[in-house]
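Consider the tokenized backbone below.
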């Protein structure tokens, strides 16, 4: 946010940013007022900033010092000192030549965030920096002015920057860029047709219902299963039933030990989910969106064993034994578990990677 913008104008822009899902603001003079508008992470040169900023002055100009030996930069020393004191640190770098590009790589091994500003922006220096820092624990933010620039930054090298930062000019610009980032951040999963081989009751167990803050539509649900690398597509309760009213915010997920897919191609145990956690909503085409858990309910219910097969792989999972629990068939239509029969095909996800603490890794893990 430009220091030259009056607070009255700035307040309206920041309110629009908050409503658009933006949660970080770079501001050098109005952090106290901004915190009254909403719960933002403030990026600033102030000592108590949520993210401590180096490489910028009070006028918003870059100050990173260049020396032939980049490791002697005073701003690098300041960043190291801030990190050692426990701060989250962001470096602001205006890329004007190869030396600045190299400085970004050096700083990227120290700081948590780097804001990259291009005076004569081209894709090439961004590609180089992304490639050099791909294995470092740093988030790259490209300074952009519009949605087109943001798309280039987010898609560069198929990896892209972790985000973008921009000087808010008007409401339309904020909404356009925020909408684009939301769209580009969407994950997609290739759903397979799993062949049902067995369906049978197995007694009772503790079952989890996930109530989200999202009103799901028919065709949407979650990826859930007893195996982290082979999951069934469980449909939401967005359909009417003669027994109960629709609850489009809910997925009757499965027993407490089952996995659910969450953002970042990770999994969580259903029993772990609490209010405020993120989960992944998936549609019948494998497109996803992130939702927040509003409530997780655990109740003892009768369970049903589902067994399926895909390309020689045997897949098992458990769901509540009730007519209102639905999967999705090969045509993308919801089907109640009470109507499942051997030979039917249902949608699911098969992952080539194993998982360790919910993260996909290249390792062999046997689940049975």
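A designed sequence for it:
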């Amino acid at each position: 946010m430009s220091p030259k913008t009056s607070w009255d104008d700035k307040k309206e822009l920041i309110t629009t940013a908050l409503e658009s899902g933006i949660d970080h603001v770079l501001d050098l003079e109005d952090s106290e007022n901004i915190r009254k508008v909403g719960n933002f992470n403030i990026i600033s040169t102030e000592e108590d900033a949520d993210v401590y900023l180096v490489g910028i002055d009070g006028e918003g100009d870059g100050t990173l010092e260049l020396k032939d030996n980049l490791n002697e930069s005073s701003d690098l020393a300041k960043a190291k000192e801030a990190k050692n004191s426990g701060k989250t640190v962001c470096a602001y770098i205006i890329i004007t030549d190869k030396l600045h590009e190299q400085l970004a790589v050096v700083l990227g091994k120290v700081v948590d965030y780097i804001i990259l500003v291009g005076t004569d922006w081209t894709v090439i220096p961004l590609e180089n920096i992304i490639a050099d820092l791909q294995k470092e624990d740093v988030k790259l933010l490209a300074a952009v002015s519009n949605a087109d620039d943001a798309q280039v930054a987010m898609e560069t090298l198929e990896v892209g920057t972790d985000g973008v930062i921009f000087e808010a000019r008007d409401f339309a610009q904020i909404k356009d860029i925020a909408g684009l980032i939301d769209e580009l951040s969407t994950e997609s999963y290739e759903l397979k047709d799993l062949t049902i081989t067995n369906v049978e009751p197995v007694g009772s167990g503790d079952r989890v219902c996930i109530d989200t803050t999202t009103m799901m539509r028919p065709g949407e649900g979650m990826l859930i299963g007893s195996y982290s690398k082979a999951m069934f597509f469980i449909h939401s309760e967005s359909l009417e039933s003669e027994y109960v009213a629709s609850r489009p915010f809910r997925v009757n997920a499965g027993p407490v030990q089952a996995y659910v897919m969450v953002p970042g191609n990770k999994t969580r145990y259903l029993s772990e989910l609490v209010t405020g956690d993120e989960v992944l909503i998936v549609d019948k085409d494998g497109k996803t969106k992130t939702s927040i858990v509003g409530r997780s309910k655990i109740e003892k219910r009768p369970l049903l064993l589902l067994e399926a097969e895909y390309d020689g792989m045997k897949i098992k999972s458990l769901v509540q034994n009730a007519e209102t629990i639905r999967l999705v068939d090969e045509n993308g239509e919801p089907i109640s578990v009470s109507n499942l029969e051997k030979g039917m095909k249902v949608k699911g996800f098969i992952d080539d990677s194993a998982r360790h603490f919910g993260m996909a890794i290249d390792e062999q893990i046997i689940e049975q």
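The helical segments are 7-19, 31-37, 74-84, 98-108, 123-133, 147-155, 171-184.
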